[in-house]
Amino acid sequence: MSRMIDEALETMRGLHEIGAVNKQTLRDFETQCLPPPAYTAETIKRLRESLHVSQAVFAAYINASISTVQKWENGEKKPSGAATRLLSVIERKGCCRRSKSA
Fold this sequence. Notes:
Layout: H1 2-17, H2 23-33, H3 41-50, H4 55-61, H5 66-74, H6 81-93
Helix pairs in contact: 1-2, 3-5, 4-5
Protein name: Putative transcriptional regulator
Domain HTH cro/C1-type: 44-80
GO molecular function: DNA binding
């Protein structure tokens, strides 16, 4: 798998060099090829707590069950690739929050 990813990256970089792919597309492609970060039980709990939300609210943010979040935080389960990427986005950008107006 790593060899295929390396070859795909090389191809995209070549396409960028000849002007067939712009810089943003190349950057997006390179980002997608990065392995997702590993999240431990502690880092997931810290992330949730940094957002000042309960497990139930955090589960709702990421469209997961409360038991899934509990199992992640207890170390019984690890997030899947898609969930890991979502956690990475939340870690970098935060969660959407409702405005206090209204």
